[in-house]
Task: structure prediction
Amino acid sequence: MSAGAVASGGVWRRFLRHRVALGGAVVVALLLSAALFAPALAPQDPTLLDTSVRFLAPFADPRFPLGTDELGRDTLSRLLHGGRVSLTVGLVAMATTVLTGAAIGIAAGYLGGLADTLLMRFVDTMLCFPQVFLLLVVAAFVPPTLLSISLVIGLTSWMEVSRIVRAEILNLKEQDFVAAARALGASRARIMFRELLPNAAAPILVAATLKVASAVLMESYISYLGYGVQPPLASWGNMLTNAQGYFDTIPWLAVLPGLAITATVMGFNFLGDGLRDALDPRLRMDP
Amino acid sequence: MTVAGAPVLVEPAAAAQGALLSVRGLQLHIPSSPRPLRAVDGVSFELRRGETLGLVGESGSGKTLTALSIMRLLEPPLSGFVRGEVALDGVELMSLSEREMSDLRGRALSMVFQEPMTSLNPVMTVGRQIAEPAMRHLGLGAAEAAARAQEMLRLVGIPDPARVAASHPHLLSGGMRQRAMIAMAIACRPALLVADEPTTALDVTVQAQILELLGDLQRELGSAILLITHDLAVIAENAHRVAVMYAGRIVEEAPVDVLFAGARHPYARGLLASIPRIERSRPEMLPEIPGVVPGPGERPAGCAFAPRCARATARCHAEAPPLLDAAPGHRLACWEPFDG
Result:
C-alpha cells in the first residue's frame, strides 16, 4: 500500500461517516449531473414559446411536469438549463476567487513587510466598496457573457479568501517545520507552495465551497437586477426576475428557482464542512 | 613503495586535518536604542571532520543565534545584522546568494531542531519529507528517493521503515519524530550537522538513544557535528571539544576531558559545579552562580561575567578579556582565571 492510498482511505471513510456532508455531497452531485445532462433530461426546449399553455400549474400537464411560465415555456427545462448557467458561473467565479485570494494571501503572509502592507491595504480598499455596487458598476461597462459575469463576480469577492489565507500563513510560517524545510534547502517558492499551501488547504477548501454558494447567489442577484445573464438564456436569477410580477398569484414560478438556489447553497456549504473535517490530518486516528 | 613487505601506515589525508568549518568573528549586533543588542559578539571557532564540538551556555547566551547565523537561517531584518566569516570546506558562506546557500543547505550542511513535535510538516508523510531533500539535491527520481527515505529511516534505527515512511508525523512518538528529523537532515550525507538542543524535548531514555544515534551516524558518515545544548552531561558524553558561551561570546574552549577536569574560567567552573553528582555523600545545596545572564542590551563595558564573578577585579569591570590560547587546544577569555 502506498502512502497516498492509506491516507486517502482514511479521508474517504471519515467523509462517509459524516451524514450532513454526505447529504450535501449527494445534493451537489445531483445538481451537477442535472446541469451536465440538462439537454438530455429537459423534456422541452427551454426557450420554446407556446402562449396556448401559459401559467400551467405543476403536475397539471404531463408534458410540463413543473408547469409553464408567462410565455408558456417549460419550467423544468428552464430550471435544468438555468442550473447549468448558474453552476458554471458559480464554479468559474469560485476558481477565480480562490486563485486570486490564495495567491495574494500567500504572498502577503509569507513575504511580509512592504508587500504585506501594500497588498492588505489594497484588500481593505476593495472591501470598502459594497460588492453589489462594484459588481453593478463593472457589469454596466462589461458586456454580460457567462465568462465576464463569472470573472467579475470572482474578482470582486476574493478579499475574504486572501485574508483567511494570509492569517493561516502568518500562523504557519512561524512553525518549526518551515525553518526545518529551509534548513534542508527548500527555496522560497517551494516553502510557499509545498510546505505552507497544503497546510492551509482546509480553510481554503471551506472558503471555496462557500464561495460557490455565494457566487450562485451573486449571479442570481445581478441577473435579477437585469445586469447578469440575459434572456432568452435562462438562469435561476433571471427566472426570479420574470417571476416577480406574478408572485402574488402564481408563486411557484419564484419558489422553484428559489428552492434550486437554496439547495445549491446548502449543498455546497455542507459539503465544505464535511471535507474540512475529513481532510484535517490532525484528526486522523488510523495509521 | 613498501620495504620488505611491511605495510606503510598512511596518515589520514591532509584535508581531514584542516578545519571543515571555520567561524571567524561572527557577530549579530541588533541596532537598538540606546545601545545595540549584542546577541552574538565575536564568536570564533573551528570544527574538523568527524569531530563534535559542544556549544554550551545558559538560555540567552547566543548559542542558537550562532547556529542560525552559520546556517544563514535568520529572517530579515535580523539576517542583515550578521557580520563575520563562516567558511565551510573553504567556501565562504556569508558571500553566497540565497539561492546558492539554499543549494548547500541539506546537502553540505543541515540542521536538527529542538522540537520534534513541530519540526515536521503535519500534512506530508514522513517518507515524502525525507525524500524531498534527496530529490532536490541529488536529483533522484521519486521512486529512488522513496527507497532512499526508507533506507535512511532504517539507518536511524526505525524498525518498520515502510510503515513509518507512509505515516503522517502526528502518528509518531517524540523520539520517532526526532529520528525522522535526523533522517531528513542526513539524507544527503551533509559534511556538517548542526544539532540545536536535539534531545531537550525528549525523555531521558530516548535522549540517550538519540545521542548514541548521532554518534553512530558520525562514525558512519564522517560528518562534523555542532552540538548545541545547555546540558553539560550531554556534552560530557557526546562531544570531543566544548566551547562555553556566555553573553554572546565564547569564554572558554577546550577538549572535553580537559574542561571537565579543570575549567579555568570562573563561569565555566561555576557551570560544572552546578551539576548534581551522585557521589556527593550527603544531601547538600548545589552551588549556583548568583545573578542572571545580562540581557543583550545591558552588557557591561568589561567582562560580561564580572558582575556575577567572585574573582572580578577593577580590570575585569573596565576591559573585556580577549579569547587567547591558554594551552594548545585550550582557549580562555579571562583576566583572573583559575590555575590549570
Q: What stands out?
A: Chain B has a mean pLDDT of 86. The two ends of chain B are 46 Å apart (CA to CA).
